[in-house]
Amino acid sequence: MAAAAAPVANQAQAVLRGRLCDPAFVHSPLRSSPDTNYSKLKYLVDSSVSEACNNSVLLLGPRGCGKGAVLDMVLEDLKKEHPDAISVIRLNGMLHSDDNCATKEIARQLCLEHQLSFSKMASSDDNTDFMIDMLRECGLAHKTVIFVLEEFDLFAQGKQRLLYSLLDAMQTLTSQAVVIGISCRLDADQLLEKRVRSRFSHRKLLFVPSSLDGIQRLMEHLLMLDKDSSLPKNYVTEYNSRLTSIFGNKKFKGILGSLTDADATTSNILRFLFRVVSDMDMESGLLSMECFTHALSCMQRQPKLDSLQDLSILELYILVCMNRLEDKEQNSYNFNSIMKEYRSIQDAYKTSDKYATTVCFRAFEHLLDRELITFADSKGRNVALEYRPVKLLISSRELAQSLELNTTCPAVLQKLLDRERYM
Amino acid sequence: MDLSATPTRSNSKTKFSPSKTIAAAQMEFSTPSKPTPRRRSKPMASPPPMSPATPSTVRRSRRLLETPTKDLPETPAKDLAATPVKPKPTPTLKRKRAAPSPKTPSQAEPKRQRRLPKQRAHYRKVVYDGGEFAVGDDVYVKRQEGAESDAEDPEQEECRVCFRTSGGVMVECDACLGGFHLRCVRPPLRRVPEGDWACPYCEAERAGRAIDRPKPPAGKRIRRTAKEKLLSSDLWAARIESLRREPDGAFWAKVRWYIIPEETAAGRQPHNLRRELYRSNDIGDIEMETILRHCFVMSPKEFRDATNEGDDVFYCEYEYDEHWHNFKRLADIDDEPETKEDPSDEPYNADNDYVSDTDEDSEYDEEDEPATRCVARKNQSHGLAANSRTGRIYGLQKIGIRKIPEHVRCHQKTALEKAKATLLLATLPKSLPCRDKEMEEISTFVKDAICNDQCLGRCLYIHGVPGTGKTMSVLAVMRRLRSEFDSGALRPYCFIEINGLKLASPENIYKVIYEQLSGHRVGWKKALHYLTEHFSDGIKIGKQANQPIVLLIDELDLLLTRNQSVLYNILDWPTKPNSNLVIIGIANTMDLPEKLFPRISSRMGIQRLCFGPYNYRQLQEIITSRLKGIDAFEDQAIEFASRKVAAMSGDARRALEICRRAAEFADYRVKQLQQVGQTPSPGGNGAVCMGDIEDAIQEVFQAPHIQVMKNCPKFGKIILAAMVHELYRSGLGEVLFDKLASTVFSWCHANRELLPGYDTLLKICCKLGESKIVLCEEGTKHKLQKLQLNYPSDDVTFALKESPDLPWLSKYL
């Protein structure tokens, strides 16, 4: 039984992973209902294709809400509906926020799209003229040019020459063009310069994380296996019934709740589910509640706390000393004042953890490297390390937690910290 | 055959050395120089603008001097077919010449020309075989000598039932294009029906019934009209591009072929009209002999308006590229950017100009045929890049669509879609309401400046907030002046339009101006040098030597450099004597001159024109004038929109966009209903109502932050609330993350929430910072990170007051 199940489990895992990594599949339920951003965006772009008008749209929303994925779906579908009539120019604010570079890239992609030869040497004026000519010609040929500007806010810097010439061309020529800006900044349209803003047509689509119900539906859509897949029937029914019982479980609701309390975006959910699927029991090929709990704990890692775990005792001493100094409201301190505190502790408690200054300095440097402490200011680079003021980067709360968890930590340290622990 | 020809252009447009014959020109000045007015105006054919009829410039008379006046008395060769040395009539070559190659006859011609340069003459209009043919006319062309046995050409069509030509009004079937007498149709028609009409036979065929069409009486052959021959590809149609007389006396025409849908690669498409033709990009050289008579190929608008042009009316909306097999819409004339055609550009270069310097001959002819040149160049060097300056014009032929999409032609627009189309910013309104006074002022300013014999350098500064029609008004004025110039009421002038935001750097403006004036490209320093010479020292550039120049600089404030030298230089030119320069500057700020150095503001700040923001009545008028005849908007909806926009900015663009967006909302709603299967009720649902406008205004003017805050994850909400709380308590503008976190922890503790991890909180903060709900420092600062709210704390309170998942949050707010 087990031997037979293993390949089935492998197969099922591959199917599920394939689904999770395919944005088109993730967002496919959007196609059916009329009130989603998908159909609104599709209507907007489609109307400019079929009615020959210009538009500019902003897709706003936090990262990971599926702005790009929905746009890709829309473009994909429209390309199928109107073959040969749509060309997409993609720019990214991270790469092309420089105007000259952006116009060059536009010219390059236009050339590529229409099989024209492209010259790297052309000046930016030439490229701009070329772009405007192409817009006119494409308009005459009933072809739509769609400009996708990712990280739109980065284009809205400086004089915004690119946006101005694009939008101005769109309102003076009989072209068919759509400018789609994608940004996670909600105030992206406020960043536009006033003449650019006046030419922008201010369509905005807001993407927000879906509600708890929506997420549960999404999970079902992603994890439930099809009856008519290539997998064996009885396996699919068993898998699905297991999954339904998990979804109905109260504990699962709790897991989902604590996951979405922090981050309810689609990308986060997908990451979570990918973990879950990776933890699938390869013997039986079924998902269990443990998979979900384990995945949740993986999602809620606290990197700072983890890095506190494997510090040496001396390093913990230094951190505690720094914490004490901060509690004494000593705003500026450096390695030497930490050492003074350390010596006083050693004198008072007579522990076995007394080290030479050079050793302590090595530990101090190590802490700096791990970014648990940092320099208070960027001034005085040429001052010796010992004299530069430093700051603690972790809160006392985290420090206390890590001391509790650390089994090798001497009791003295806890006591030293305990005194000023609040809460 | 008689010949009354007026001397006209060679189809080359080149510069020539204006060296000799000027003195001689004055002598010939008395020759009547008025060009013959063209018989028909055909906007579609886009003839080059006529040269002004006003007392002409020196150059103009020079052309007259060298016009072969001796041609006129001479009787041209009677029998053209018998003329010995001429190449085979090119119509037969037509099919083979799909891709123009460097070896086309036109390339070979210059050599012949060089031998007999004086003999060749170009005409704008030729009377030949009783017909008058002018450049820009459409004609039928015989396909092959003697291929058509029925040489007689019935002007009158026969009725398909009684087979007689005379006998009352005939009506044309839209399907088979056959003519029918009103009385011959069963049942007989009283008058010509409105709209589409199909004859009973076609209707029967469409319904699937077999019906015998009436046969002609025995012995009588159906004579086919020229139109039918054309549509069955026994004739050709072409547009005359130029007319000339060869040295041997034969008349030749350079024509651009029309092509019927069947001959395209895509074949006849279902949406093609019966009378539809495509204009091809193929140019042929034919003898006048083969030209049959006129036909009329019209643009869609003319075709719709055409009433009694007879049977030879055709419809042409698209251009067909024979090389790439694709279609492109013919550009409307009014869409042509005005700046491209320099009004003062000598439209008809005398062909004899190139007699003087024959070395340039080959270049002329290359300019005639861009495709030829393109190919030739390609052989020379590695292919031409489309985005480079020289390559741009030629590579773009490729962009056409293989098949004209059906939705474009067959789609009946609803009222809402029509409204959307007219509200589009790109559609040029028929009238520009509410700016009459300002336009009048601009118009008088420009006229004053260019009409006086001595053009005083002047400067006009136009300011106003965006979207108040500054540029549009100036361009409209220039268009009007242009038409005045065409009708001969105005001196020639040169109009240059520059947009400050489209220049790569302020200094580039010199380069652009110089290029527009001379056609050459140089670096900006050199251009500045030449321009200074031009304007102050009187060493003129280019051929429009003494014409006044109207320079429109849009977004003038962008030309500001640190030492303001660009603005100073440009504004200094008009003050020079004999500069003949008029500058119109447009910018947003009212006090731009005051911000400049006094030496500049004294040069520009004298004459100013303010475009105030529109008030709601004006906006309403603008919108209603665009929507005239379209019943898609409720009246109070328009008023609401215009009042709202007038209160905010008075930006006409904004008002139009809001209305368009509202129309989109309504259209979307209607379409969704249609998908479900309901038909919208004709009254309320179909039109744009107040609700739609309100939605549109919401979308335009409101940042979506409240909605995003409402949809934040739970801890995000707690952080925001804690931030408001902290900021309120401390009274400072910003809060440390450490403090914020401890507040959040204590709240969570008190309200039995699951405690979030410290790092999780930090991550959420960074995410909020990304969407700029809060402003924060980079995450590496960890607990030292400073945070600040980006929106008023009232908004946060409003958004989080009643959140269902955190009922306890409201007590802290």
UniProtKB/TrEMBL annotation, chain A:
One of its GO terms (biological process) is DNA replication initiation. Gene3D superfamilies: P-loop containing nucleotide triphosphate hydrolases. GO terms for cellular component: nuclear origin of replication recognition complex. SUPFAM superfamilies: P-loop containing nucleoside triphosphate hydrolases. Residues 57-203 form the ATPase AAA-type core domain. It is found in: Nucleus. The keyword Disulfide bond does not apply. One of its GO terms (molecular function) is ATP hydrolysis activity. Residues 218-402 form the Origin recognition complex subunit 4 C-terminal domain. It comes from the Eukaryota. Keywords: ATP-binding, DNA replication, DNA-binding, Nucleotide-binding, Nucleus. Pfam families: AAA, ORC4_C. Belongs to the ORC4 family. Component of the origin recognition complex (ORC) that binds origins of replication. DNA-binding is ATP-dependent. The specific DNA sequences that define origins of replication have not been identified yet. ORC is required to assemble the pre-replication complex necessary to initiate DNA replication. This is Origin of replication complex subunit 4.
Automatic annotation (TrEMBL), chain B:
Residues 335-345, 354-369 have a biased composition (Acidic residues). Residues 156-205 form the PHD-type domain. Keywords: Activator, ATP-binding, DNA replication, DNA-binding, Magnesium, Metal-binding, Nucleotide-binding, Nucleus, Transcription, Transcription regulation, Zinc, Zinc-finger. GO terms for biological process: DNA replication initiation; mitotic DNA replication checkpoint signaling. One of its GO terms (molecular function) is zinc ion binding. One of its GO terms (cellular component) is nuclear origin of replication recognition complex. InterPro entries: AAA+_ATPase, AAA_lid_10, ATPase_AAA_core, BAH_dom, BAH_sf, Cdc6_C, ORC1/CDC6, P-loop_NTPase. Residues 1-122, 335-380 are annotated as: Disordered. It comes from the Eukaryota. It is found in: Nucleus. Residues 214-331 form the BAH domain. Residues 1-20 have a biased composition (Polar residues). Pfam families: AAA, AAA_lid_10, BAH, PHD, WHD_Cdc6. Residues 112-122 have a biased composition (Basic residues). Component of the origin recognition complex (ORC) composed of at least ORC1, ORC2, ORC3, ORC4, ORC5 and ORC6. ORC is regulated in a cell-cycle and development dependent manner. It is sequentially assembled at the exit from anaphase of mitosis and disassembled as cells enter S phase. Binds unmodified and methylated histone H3. Belongs to the ORC1 family. Component of the origin recognition complex (ORC) that binds origins of replication. DNA-binding is ATP-dependent, however specific DNA sequences that define origins of replication have not been identified so far. ORC is required to assemble the pre-replication complex necessary to initiate DNA replication. This is Origin recognition complex subunit 1.
